[in-house]
Write a structure and sequence with these properties.
It is built from 27 helices and 22 strands. By secondary structure, the protein is an alpha+beta fold. A hairpin with a 5-residue loop joins strand 3 (about 180-195) and strand 4 (about 200-210). The protein starts with a helix and ends with a helix.
Length: about 900
């Protein structure tokens, strides 16, 4: 570096400035000249030319003196301590490096845009997914003693039930006999009530809770009060607590709502409290009616009616294993419970989150791979850029610049790039989360509180910044072995030796990560294709479902449902109509079976699915008859009791036999069951195909179907669905169906009208969204891999311009040159694919639980992934190969 300070002092020697003032002028002017000198060097000027250009910027002494005379001399400042001087010098040097780095980015806009976009996408995707995982899976429940809150389930291998709820007597035994819990509460989640008397009749979502529920969670009312202990001593619901959502959206946020009378299920109830917002605990609940344990409704007295959810808070010092043994002993003391009964405690947060843990972690892993690919891509870009700057660095080293100073500059440039990329990534992550929150029917819990959170942002930015700084430092280490005499010659600017190997290895790693992502997507695509091609056992197209919650629990309900069938069957285009409590895409109610032709052990009764149906149900939904007959309109309460079973029940319970004519009893469970009497035996009159009641990927279970007119308890009259098979667009019938039902009962809510095809599609929504997100990340990975391959091949071919010119001059055809360049890209692709396949073989095992009828080592998925990546890589190599083949030998020789 030239000694500009001496030149400046000679220039202003005749001005007779105060020593301190003169030193300030020298420091300021020398800094400007040094920046001008560095800028000239970066533009390719020699040292002498750069020095002369810098000195030309120096104002002549006379003009400088005139300028200084117009300024008042500043008072001498005390000389700061040496440590402060060094700190100021370093700080000034850092800002010099930042300004220089910005100038370099402006000079190479292509590099800057690609690197910043790459980092932004990688940081944005990973930050968004990490925020989602933290808020949905990792964020603790905001309740007192949340780490001691557990959901309580039972299981019995002999009955084939892996998750059994509790009955009313079970809950009473738990409350009276347990020694493990500070609080225990039962609840019935997300059923519906009819709301009338306030405009158009509506359905509201309810969660009914027992006495200790709110106290266990430490919930305080937003307005009014909670239920008092005395209100749990009688069955009538004369008071009501509503949710914050219901109060805000349906009651207009009325501050005087306490004391307002509303009508649910035809009963007048007074609002006594409004709960605070509770996004973690059944956020779709509108009202919270009380659930009494003693006294109890008839359906609460039957021990076999397992429908009640139970949650408890462990006593301090009690482990889940100890509590499981305690509750298991209590249940086994009860009559008619299976001897192999077990109790399971599931952390409440895990129970509320459900089965989204693995899909979210898989998506987070894909986002992490995208961040890795992005960082590798930026590292390759920086390395290629460093190769281009070898001449510049060689000049600076030859002029006396230290390696430490150069390393500082390179690391600062990397940090600057990372800062801009992180800022862009922050905006992308914010936009992605805003979009996810607005996606309709997204099957994720706790979405109300999902936001761009600090821990996710800090961890992602820290990892990205650390990697970019590391890359900058590694580049500077490479310059410590730079051969100045070679680098100062034009031929030194070639990607040979360690630099070329490093560049190739980075791109190989990028391809390997992309292979892992693409294999994962191919596995998910193959699995999803298998799911959507599963035979559901019915025809969802052209089928309409209308959910109806009535206030009928007696004979009046029979007349209502018959009227609904008669009125809607006469609508134009309607071919079949039926009613049933079947809910497409959701789990069916549980039933246990008693057989006439064999001994029945009360503690080991087999179980399956059960549905009440009308006579034309199977024709309406399109389920085939395998043996026997369908129900008819004569199968009512005056006819012999009959039942139909599915093919799975026939295969499992009567293998190799004809089940027609056999008789079974059905214990149909649910909160509406009103009888403890042993079930009557029913004759099997038909066998139908297996209907997938739950999602398409759930295995077929034994199922029974009963005529709804033969329900002696009338509990099925309260809640059923109307199904219509029609020509054309079934949703066009919605208004006509609503009008016909309102003609029968003007207070009947008719708001849940859906195409069954949409319901079936929603049943695999988790798989679909997982596939979409992982697929999007794989697409980004492929794009970044293509950019990496293109960048490396393009740069290496540009550095070999003279070589290709010589080849063409010696008779090589353009096809020879193209194939030569393509082979270079193919080598990188093959090596990266081999590494990626090895990684995919490891990762695929973790995806096993997300796959349906597809193994984790599915050959076609691996072949398809490698084929896609090979096609992308070849396409990325075509442009550099074409450019290399168009080299003019004469021009190529002159470039050297």
């Amino acid at each position: 570096m030239p000694d500009f300070k001496s030149e400046i002092r000679r220039s202003i020697a005749g001005l007779n400035l105060p020593p301190t003032y003169e030193e300030e002028i020298v420091e300021e002017l020398s800094q400007d000249l040094e920046e001008r000198f560095e800028e000239a060097l970066s533009h390719g000027a020699s040292e002498q030319e750069a020095e002369q250009l810098a000195l030309n910027e120096l104002t002549p002494a006379g003009a400088l003196g005139d300028q200084l005379k117009q300024l008042k001399p500043r008072a001498p400042k005390p000389t700061p301590p040496m440590g402060i001087q060094r700190s100021r010098s370093r700080f000034a040097g850092f800002w010099d490096d930042v300004r220089f780095g910005l100038r370099m980015l402006r000079k190479q806009p292509g590099f800057a845009v690609v690197a910043i976009l790459t980092l932004g996408v990688g940081i944005g995707a990973s930050t968004a997914m990490l925020s989602l995982v933290r808020d949905v899976l990792l964020r603790p429940l905001p309740y007192a003693h949340a780490d001691r809150l557990y959901a309580i389930w039972a299981s019995s291998e002999s009955s084939g039930q892996s998750q059994v709820a509790a009955s009313g007597p079970d809950l009473i035994d738990y409350l009276e006999q347990n020694r493990s819990f500070a609080h225990l509460a039962g609840y019935i989640p997300l059923f519906t009530f009819t709301w009338t008397g306030d405009g158009e009749p509506k359905l509201v979502n309810c969660t009914s809770v027992s006495e200790q529920f709110f106290g266990m969670f430490g919930i305080k009312p937003y307005l009014g009060r909670l239920y008092e202990p005395r209100e749990y001593t009688y069955l009538e619901n004369d008071t009501l607590i509503v949710s914050y959502r219901f109060w805000k959206n349906q009651l207009g946020g009325d501050p005087n709502v306490i004391g307002r009378v509303v009508h649910f299920e035809g009963v007048s109830e007074t609002i006594v409290g409004v709960l605070p917002p509770m996004s973690d605990l059944f956020p779709n609940t509108d009202v919270w009616p009380k659930h009494t344990v003693r006294p109890s409704w008839p359906y609460m007295k039957w021990r076999g009616n397992k429908f009640l959810r139970v949650v408890g808070e462990l006593n301090p010092g009690v482990t889940p294993a100890m509590a499981e043994e305690d509750l298991k002993a209590i249940l086994r003391r009860a009559p008619e419970e299976p001897r192999d009964l077990r109790v399971h405690l599931v952390p409440l947060k895990e129970d509320l989150v459900g089965n989204v843990r693995l899909p979210l972690y898989a998506t987070l892993g894909a986002a992490g791979l995208i961040l890795m690919v992005a960082c590798i891509n930026v590292a390759a870009l920086l390395l290629a850029r460093m190769v281009k700057r070898e001449g510049e660095i060689a000049v600076r080293l030859s002029l006396g610049a230290g390696l430490r100073r150069i390393a500082q500059q390179l690391v600062t440039e990397s940090l600057l790039l990372s800062a801009i990329g992180c800022t862009l990534g922050l905006m992308i992550a914010w936009a992605v989360l805003r979009l996810l929150v607005r996606v309709p029917n997204l099957p994720l819990p706790r979405m109300d509180n999902v936001h761009l959170n600090g821990p996710a942002l800090l961890s992602t930015i820290a990892s990205a910044s650390a990697m970019t700084i590391l890359f900058g430092w590694m580049s500077s280490v490479g310059f410590s072995r730079l051969n100045l005499s070679s680098a100062l010659r034009p031929r030194g600017l070639q990607t040979t030796g360690r630099r070329g190997l490093s560049l190739a290895l980075l791109v190989t790693g990028e391809i390997a990560c992309s292979v892992v992502l693409t294999v994962s997507v191919c596995l998910l695509v193959h699995s999803f294709w298998r799911v959507i091609h599963v035979n559901p056992g019915f025809q969802p197209r052209s089928l309409l479902r209308v959910y109806l919650r009535t206030n009928y629990y007696d004979e009046k309900g029979r007349a209502f449902w018959k009227g609904v069938l008669t009125e809607t069957a006469s609508l134009p285009g309607v071919r079949h109509v039926a009613v049933s409590d079947w809910r497409p895409g959701r789990d069916a109610a549980t039933a246990t079976f008693v057989f006439e032709d064999r001994p029945n052990e009360p503690t080991r009764l087999p179980s399956g699915e059960g549905s009440w149906v009308s006579d034309d149900f199977f024709r309406t939904v399109g389920t085939p008859l395998i043996a026997g007959r369908f129900f008819t309109e004569h199968d009512d309460d005056n006819a012999p009791a009959v039942v139909m079973i599915n093919d799975e029940a026939a295969r499992r319970f009567w293998p190799g036999e004809n089940p027609i004519g056999k008789r079974i009893g059905v214990n149909y469970t649910g909160p509406g069951r009103r009888s403890e009497v042993a079930p009557r035996l029913r004759e099997i009159v038909g066998v139908v195909g297996n209907v997938r009641h739950d999602s398409l990927d759930a295995p077929a279970a034994p199922a029974v179907y009963l005529p709804y007119l033969q329900d002696e308890t009338n509990h099925d009259m309260a809640t059923m669905s109307l199904f219509l098979r029609a020509d054309g667009n079934v949703m066009a019938l919605a208004d006509s169906v609503r009008n016909r039902i309102h003609q029968l009962d003007s207070n009947q809510p008719v708001q849940n009208i859906q195409s069954v095809a949409d319901l079936v599609s929603q049943s695999v929504a988790t798989r679909r969204y997982t596939l979409i997100l992982v697929g999007a990340f794989a697409g980004i990975g492929l794009l970044l891999a293509a950019v990496g391959v293109y960048g490396v091949i393009s740069y290496t071919t540009s550095q070999r311009t003279r070589e290709f010119g010589v080849r063409i001059a010696l008779g090589a055809t353009r096809g020879n040159v193209v194939s030569h360049v393509l082979r270079s890209g193919a080598r990188l692709t093959v090596l990266g694919s081999l590494v990626g396949i090895a990684g995919a073989l490891i990762i695929a095992r973790s995806l096993s639980a997300l796959l349906f009828e597809v193994g984790p080592f599915d050959l076609w998925s691996f072949v398809g992934a490698v084929g896609i990546l090979a096609a992308v890589s070849i396409f990325a190599c075509l442009v550099p190969a074409w450019r290399a083949s168009r080299v003019d030998p004469t021009v190529a020789m002159q470039t050297e």
